[in-house]
Amino acid sequence: MFGHARRTYHVSSTHVAASDESGGGRLERPFASIRFAIGEVDADSVVFVHPAHIESVGADNWDWKNSGVWVRGLGWGDRRPTLTINAAKSISMKKTGCVMENLLFLCGVADQSVVVQVGGLPAQSDNALLNCEFRAIGGVRPTNYVQSFGDRSIVDGIKVLSDPAVANSAIGVRHNIGDQSVLRNFYFDSCHYQVNPGLAPSENVLGGDGSFIRAHPSQNRVIDPDSANAGFCTGPIAIRIDGGTIAETIKDSIGTGQDVSVWQIYHKGAQAILVSKADGEAGAFFNGGPPSTDA
Amino acid sequence: MVQLEDSQIAAGIAPHKVLGLGTPLPPTFNPPRYVDSTATAAKDAAGFGKEISRPYATIAFAVTDCPADTALVVLPGHTESVSAADAWKFKNSGVWVMGLGWGARRPTITFGTSTAAQIKLSKASTVLQNLLFVNSLDALVLPLLIGADDCAMLDFEYRENLGVQAVTTINISVGIDRCLLENFKILGDTAAPATSGIVVQQSNKDCVIRDFWIEGNYTDGCIDNNNVGVQRLMIIGGKGSYARNSNSNDQIINLSATATGFIAGPMALRLADNAANITESIVGAAMQIYASGAFEIGVVNADGEAALQWNGVKSTDA
Prior knowledge:
The complex is a heterodimer.
Chain A: E1 7-11, H1 34-38, E2 45-49, E3 54-57, E4 62-63, E5 70-73, E6 82-85, E7 91-93, E8 99-101, E9 104-107, E10 114-118, E11 128-130, E12 133-136, E13 144-148, E14 154-161, E15 170-175, E16 181-189, E17 191-195, E18 203-206, E19 211-214, E20 223-224, E21 231-234, E22 237-240, E23 263-266, E24 273-276, E25 284-285
Parallel strand pairs in A: 1-2, 2-5, 3-6, 4-7, 5-8, 6-9, 7-10, 8-11, 9-12, 10-13, 11-14, 12-14, 13-15, 14-16, 15-17, 16-18, 16-19, 17-20, 18-21, 19-22, 21-23, 22-24
Antiparallel strand pairs in A: 24-25
Chain B: H1 6-11, E1 33-35, H2 59-65, E2 71-74, E3 79-82, E4 96-99, E5 108-111, E6 119-121, E7 127-129, E8 132-135, E9 144-146, E10 152-154, E11 157-160, E12 168-172, E13 180-187, E14 196-200, E15 208-216, E16 223-225, E17 233-236, E18 241-245, E19 253-255, E20 261-264, E21 267-270, E22 282-283, E23 287-290, E24 297-300, E25 308-309
């Protein structure tokens, strides 16, 4: 609970006294950038990023100095702290127990490998990305918007509006090495979910309070695990594809057969996974994966 | 000077509904401003509003004086009339008008005097929360107009006095993007016909309507869009939504053939006529519609009947 944080810091690029200097970060003299703040603040601190803060990400990677740092954006809509990605530098939460919340990312670098990495090696675990929005801008889009890395990573409440006009689907969230990770409450437009092929993390894709995927025209396989994945995949998830088969909307792209043999998929009732294939059509239940039998 | 504390943020002074569509968080470190028509010291003048003991008297004045990214806290029991067009002239973006109180103690805004009476959200990222709107005037043209990007109306109720009906209750104006209407109730008069509960105008993108209860007598449907260019509109049941149209057009959601986006339950819909109208209750030729399982959309068209699942054409695996 961040209300019991060890210390509280502030970031606001619009404050007249904002300055990136050691010992700063007070309400009356906030840091000017999140990038500087995360390299400065104590462990287990909260960094409040004030409404209308803007920051370019490009010159340097972001390096967290300590674990347990919670970067919390304030404000709603276009007053949320806004990070514009101008160069292929990644924001990598390579510590433990760090959180980024309520930030808007404008992604303007073509084919950028990863915009935000949640966690690092398996030991850099328990990180979270909460209630953040990503938008493609300038007619380009990254290859991966978010990469989840390390054990027990959580990506919750994410909205990714990629660009359907750019050839090939981007990956909204990609799970890499690490177990017991969760993707939940997501809205993907023109992008999809993938597990890094050949790896075998145990990850969970959960509809939560309701999740939505509008597939890129080129990509009907919108949830693409690895055949060795373990974990849960549950609705409620509403999916729209432009072709292909409903059974293959959730499937390993490099294997054969259903290739979700270690995953368990729940797609009925309160956990419904529905797939619509054309304008005006109602979603039909996902029908891949043989149902369990009482034998 | 009173300031919202971290503990208040943690306690959730704003709704934290996480649906992958953005979560409203109030601006918390600008000192809040206060509005309270019941306070003896209340006054609409510069220098007021900064302390709870010396509040503004009206929201109409407060929004002309309130800095950007500030919570404007409206105290329980506050009452205010709206009698002219564009009655609240917002000066800055990011103002969060936050009503306190429950039921009849919520801040209550009454439309009257002129059929042009209206609140227009004219600055980006304005949020209205926990307000009760009451219409006392028949043929009120349009009481609530969203006229800027990224605005939100949360946890509100709109109701009408007996025998009066606004023509349209809420209009999301032309080309306005990313607006959110969430957890709200529109109870229109069921006898006098009106046009629409909510109109989504053309060229909007990424607007979200979820967790609603809409009742009225709407000739164009409870949620209506008759114009082109609406993209990625989301009409979502959320934790459960309800709509009843008492008009014989029997349409709940009535979208143009070019509007794109998601319609998903859970929703309970009630139509006026006991007729072949279940399929037609939702019109959206370019939308994708999810009406089964957790997204169930049930439709009833006669008293005492159990719902039939909305029965539009389903996708097939071929």
